[in-house]
């Protein structure tokens, strides 16, 4: 139970209002939820990236002769459409290539004499490495002008960074949980020293170590609950605001850094987990200390 009776609270409550422990718990939980949200979002984006790019290829037909280039590209496209294992094969429009080259080449990218390769986007049914490699090798053997690039290989550095960020976020969550437990231990020990005389009187009146520990446990649990609500609400508002800003950018890659329903559920469970952690840490610390010093 987090809520204690008023008489029990008065026994160990040395000051009125919110104690420093409440603010510490609020700050700890706020930072932990931000780190957890970062980890969950990047992990989800990495999974989405793998699903989207795992079975995709780009076929390039490179030739300085536009007529030969277009003829070979048409042959490759026709063959891809009849090849088993290919879900979709679409030629990239010349205007789209010109638009992509515009930031680097300006108006020169629209020059019909510019030796821009013909490109074909390919989606595969089977996204395993063996199937992708087999189809890529078959296409390469069709013509010496053909080059095949796997989208997954382009984005592997990005995926690696996302995995590193996920692991970093997990490490931060564990560090913050450890720091929270350490703060609770220090607060419990300080409370024991502050109320040492009161605790001695309680022992003389017949109170057991477990009963005394329960008072500390309830007081710290109440502080943790109040701080958890404040820090949790603030963190959820910040995460929601950042998510809306990222979604508004319109980028497919950055827009994928979002939280699913399961992710939001996990974030909502963090305040409860912190209260349980604080309560357990306080109980264990106080019981051990009482057995040793009293």
Keywords summarizing the entry:
294 residues, 10 helices, alpha+beta
Backbone structural class:
alpha+beta
Query: What helical percentage do the residues reach?
Result: over 70%
End-to-end separation in angstroms reads 26 Å
- Low-pLDDT sequence parts: 7-12, 14-18
Cα radius of gyration in angstroms: 31 Å
As for the number of domains, it is 2
| Number of E strands | 4
Mean pLDDT: 77
The neighbouring-strand order within the major sheet is 2-3-1-4
Main β sheet profile: 4 strands, antiparallel
Give the helices and strands as they follow along the chain: HHEHEHEHEHHHHH
Shape: rod-shaped
Strand content: 5-15%
Q: Please tally the helical runs, counting DSSP H or I stretches of 4 or more residues.
A: 10
Write up this protein:
By secondary structure, this protein is an alpha+beta fold. It has 2 domains: 6-50 and 156-293, no CATH class; 53-155, Alpha-Beta Plaits. 72% of the residues lie in helices and 8% in strands. It has 10 helices and 4 strands. The protein has helices spanning 6-12, 20-53, 66-82, 94-105, 129-140, 151-194, 196-204, 209-248, 252-255, 261-293, and strands at 56-61, 86-91, 118-124, 146-150. The chain has a 4-stranded antiparallel beta sheet. Helix 2 packs antiparallel against helix 6 and helix 6 packs parallel to helix 10 (261-293). The radius of gyration is 31 Å and the shape is rod-shaped. The two termini are 26 Å apart.
């Amino acid at each position: 139970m987090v809520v204690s009776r008023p008489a029990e609270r008065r026994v160990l409550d040395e000051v009125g209002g919110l104690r420093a422990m409440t603010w510490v718990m609020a700050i700890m939980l706020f930072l932990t939820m931000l780190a957890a949200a970062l980890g969950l979002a990047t992990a989800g984006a990495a999974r989405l990236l793998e699903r989207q790019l795992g079975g995709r290829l780009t076929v390039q037909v490179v030739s300085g002769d536009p007529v030969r280039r277009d003829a070979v590209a048409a042959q490759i496209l026709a063959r891809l459409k009849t090849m088993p294992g290919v879900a979709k094969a679409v030629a990239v429009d010349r205007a789209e290539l010109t638009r992509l080259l515009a930031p680097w080449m300006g108006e020169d990218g629209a020059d019909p004499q510019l030796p821009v390769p013909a490109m074909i986007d390919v989606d595969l049914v089977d996204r395993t490495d063996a199937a992708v490699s087999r189809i890529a090798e078959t296409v390469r053997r069709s013509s010496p002008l053909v080059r095949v690039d796997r989208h997954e290989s382009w984005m592997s550095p990005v995926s690696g960074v996302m995995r590193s960020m996920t692991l970093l976020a997990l490490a931060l969550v564990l560090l913050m949980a450890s720091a929270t437990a350490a703060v609770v231990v220090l607060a419990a020990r300080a409370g024991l020293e502050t109320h040492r005389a009161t605790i001695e009187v309680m022992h003389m009146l017949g109170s057991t170590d477990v009963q005394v520990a329960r008072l500390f446990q309830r007081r710290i649990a109440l502080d943790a609950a109040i701080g958890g609500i404040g820090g949790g609400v603030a963190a959820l508002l910040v995460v929601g605001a950042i998510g809306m800003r990222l979604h508004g950018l319109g980028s497919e890659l950055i827009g994928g850094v979002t939280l699913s329903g399961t992710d939001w559920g996990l974030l909502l469970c963090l305040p409860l987990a912190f209260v349980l952690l604080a309560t357990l840490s306080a109980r264990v610390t106080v019981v051990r200390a009482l057995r040793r010093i009293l």
